[in-house]
Amino acid sequence: MSNVGSEPARQTLKYRCLATPEGWGCPILIACNAGKSYGLSVRLKRDIDLLLFPPLPRAKKKLERRYNTRAAVERINDRLNVFWDTNDGNITGSCRFHAKVGAVLIVHAA
After folding, report:
1. pTM (whole model) above 0.70
2. Same-domain status, 8 and 51
């Protein structure tokens, strides 16, 4: 089944069988479609499992762009924590921590 969109009002994702639109031969096509010309469609509630049914379906360009941005941010956070040692626990107080992270970011940007 292929993702064909979502219905925000119903909090559901909509999936459709590809056999009818693509013209594939399917042995249970008549039983599934029940006289519909567009193929079997199913709505799944996102509440079932957000990991299995995310709001942005997998294999979509928008999700890939967001994931690439997230991966870049994670690389920067890892570089700050490991290479510059910002989470060593020896800094007490938020002012000192922010001063160290600010200095590290200035040096890193230079």
Report:
1. no
2. yes
